[in-house]
Model the fold of this input.
Amino acid sequence: MEYEAVIGLEVHAQLLTDSKLFCSCSTEFGAPPNENTCPICVGMPGVLPVLNRKAVEYAIKTALAMNCTIAPHSKFARKNYFYPDLPKGYQISQYELPLSSNGSVEIEVEGRRRRIGIVRIHMEEDAGKLIHGEDLGQSEYSYVDMNRCGVPLIEIVSAPDLRTPEEAKEYMMRLRTVLQYLEVCDGNMEEGSLRCDANVSIRPAGSSPLGTKAEIKNMNSFRHVQRALEYEIQRQTRLLEEGEKVLQETRLWDANQGITLAMRGKEEAHDYRYFPEPDLVPCGVAQEWIDAIHVTLPELPDARRQRFIEQYGIPPYDAGVLTAAKALANYFEESVRIYPKPKTVSNWVMVELLRELKGEAVEIEQCPLNPEKLAELLNLIDQGVISGKIAKAVFEEMYRSGKRAPEIIQEKGMTQISDQDELSTAIDQVLAANAENVSAYLQGKEKLFGYLVGQIMKATRGRANPELVNRLLREKLQR
Done:
């Protein structure tokens, strides 16, 4: 029997506020353990939470960007469960009346665009963090860092509209891009700013009823999301084919083994004993506030992609790559402002620059080569100072050393040879050394022209002006 997967994602995004959701403690990442805490965020008796207005604003901004309906009134609730890094024994979240609902985002996979529904976007506070002793060489102990307690989160809950791990990965990448464009979340998955729980079940292809789902917890990379879903779909398919049942449970993704592992039976809403948070009044959101936030929305990824196609005349694929990250799109536009040849800039950014960034596993924000230096290099190609091939070598040195192109060219003697007499001498030497190939070319083997050009470039260590070499070589062969 052929099966299809039904996937829904719950994405937790940390909001870029300076202070926590219900107190004034700092949200700074990397502070010493338990330094950014106070009686409110560690749950001392008798304290009262106060809602962070900026966090609500960021949540509204996100909801608007994802086409959600904003509720005029939403309520916070206590979600009760017991875990060492949850000092209050409950988490303040939203349940029956979330801040927003009924939204959507569009994704594109293999040339197909699909609209993925968003059931709700609600606000909640984060829990702390457990640091297990084996990471510190003390396997018998675990430690609790409360710094993250109370950090503001939004949870973006998708409809069960995703059908493949590739779609799930693309959907999560799209959310991260939108959040970064809005500047409400940095999307740093290594630091836990963006995390994902995935619900997945399978059913006979073409059928309507949903199968029994498993929840995979706390994945913090796009690749992990895709791989975990691939494994889980295979696991559930194997169980059904062998006549066994899929259990509703929570599972963990073990990236080292490439498998999911049973963690506990899946909780239902009643297991958390939700009830209204008695220390917080309902959150009222006036339409005037929504309208004021709406006018501050930046140009979003899809709109910017379309503008790049129309304004700069670059292909849709290029525009998609360049607008996938706001900082990368800014880099491209600044480069084009200085060097107004969009397709040339696009090629260099997409091929040379992204290769270097990927090789070092860093984001564009950490790039040591600014748009001014890239534009200066491209101008040197246009001026005939260096060839395109030499420019690539110069670019690599620029990226690693931070030096400007003219400095590197002068230091390494990489200036392009455009002197006709010098090139003519080099061509004569190559022709004399390749008499048989010259004869074969003259007898009709035109492909040997490229070979001869290559030998000339080799003899000049890649410094010969390619256009001039081609012209002079043809003139000599036609004599």
About this structure: The chain is about 40% helix and 20% strand.
